[in-house]
Design a protein that fits this description.
The chain is α+β, with helices and mostly antiparallel strands. The protein has one domain: NADH Oxidase, CATH 3.40.109.10. 31% of the residues lie in helices and 16% in strands. A 4-stranded antiparallel β-sheet has the order 1-2-4-3, with helices on both faces.
Length: 175
């Protein structure tokens, strides 16, 4: 395997982080990965909110009824927003940016996890869109896709094993 194949195999969702802070250079490198990610027609219909304030990270951990709790342990998070008025490919463009940040984090030796936000709700029934708008001042036109939490890994995850790859999911030429 090559370095990129190894990176793909070792990047696993990490929901437990140490308390060690990321450097400004690490944060910038992660954000750069998002900002240079490909978009449909190069329209760049996304926006990113970088968060490292512990109180805000704690609040982000309550954005969903379930599945967002790990964000309280993250030391850095990026809220990924799309602008449907700019492109109908905002979901795809934001998804690419999010995974590029996760791959960049893995290359830096950091862990990350995607927390889905689009179309989700908190325990109080409030949509994640409304929750994030109130918490972070997100303008109405933007749709949240996800929040990616980052930090130094505080759990062991084995790389994907080749014998577990489902090659039966690949169809040659036609289904």
């Amino acid at each position: 395997m090559n370095k990129f194949s190894d990176l793909i195999a070792t990047r696993r969702s990490m929901r437990k982080f140490t308390t060690q802070k990321l450097t400004e250079e690490q944060k910038k490198t992660i954000l750069r990965a998002a900002l240079i990610s490909p978009t449909a027609k190069n329209n760049r219909g996304w926006e990113f909110i970088a968060v490292d304030d512990p109180a805000t990270l704690e609040a982000l951990s309550k954005s969903r009824e379930m599945g967002s709790g790990f964000l309280a342990e993250a030391v850095f998070a990026v809220v990924v927003l799309g602008d449907p008025t700019k492109t109908d490919c905002w979901v795809e463009d934001c998804s690419i940016a999010a995974i590029d940040m996760q791959l960049q984090a893995e290359d830096l030796g950091l862990g990350s996890c995607w927390c889905h936000q689009r179309g989700r709700f908190g325990a109080d029934g409030k949509s994640t869109k409304q929750y994030l708008a109130e918490l972070l001042g997100v303008p109405e036109q933007y749709e949240p896709l996800c929040i990616v939490g980052f930090g130094y890994k505080n759990m062991d995850r084995k790389p994907y094993e080749d014998d577990k790859i489902e090659w039966s999911k690949v169809h040659q030429g036609k289904f």
